[in-house]
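Summary of Year 1 activities. Much of the first year was spent building the evaluation harness for sequence design. The harness presents a backbone, in tokenized form, and records the residue chosen at every position. We chose the following record to illustrate the format because it has been used consistently in internal testing since the harness was completed.
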């Protein structure tokens, strides 16, 4: 079970580092092609979301390498909250298709957090 949890943790970290770096560094015009929701937010907010995802993704893995597992738990919980917020926003916009990835990621992060506590 520990191996499966570690693999899930690394996969989630890769997803969030990639997604966060994309939002943090790509031009908004280029992002808007694949993520039309960025047009509803200021550039600063999109960059802030990107940095939150990027740092949270790193927080899922890096603290465990130096024995600070509690920070991994904090990163998982914070990212789950971020994904719940994203899902709520998509649902309010009547974009159920866009909410599904956020909901799935939030559930996976909650599973990781629960197993870290146990």
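For this record, the design step produced the sequence shown next.
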């Amino acid at each position: 079970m520990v191996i499966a949890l570690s693999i899930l943790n690394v996969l989630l970290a890769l997803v969030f580092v990639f997604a966060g770096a994309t939002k943090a560094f790509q031009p908004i015009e280029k992002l808007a092609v694949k993520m039309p929701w960025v047009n509803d937010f200021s550039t600063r907010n999109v960059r802030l979301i990107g940095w939150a995802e990027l740092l949270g993704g790193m927080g899922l893995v890096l603290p465990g390498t130096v024995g600070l597992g509690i920070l991994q738990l904090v990163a998982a919980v914070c990212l789950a909250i971020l994904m719940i917020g994203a899902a709520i926003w998509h649902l309010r916009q009547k974009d159920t298709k866009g909410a599904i990835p956020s909901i799935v990621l939030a559930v996976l992060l909650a599973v990781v957090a629960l197993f870290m506590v146990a």
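DSSP finds six helices and no strands in the chain. Quantitative recovery figures across the full test set are reported in Table 2.
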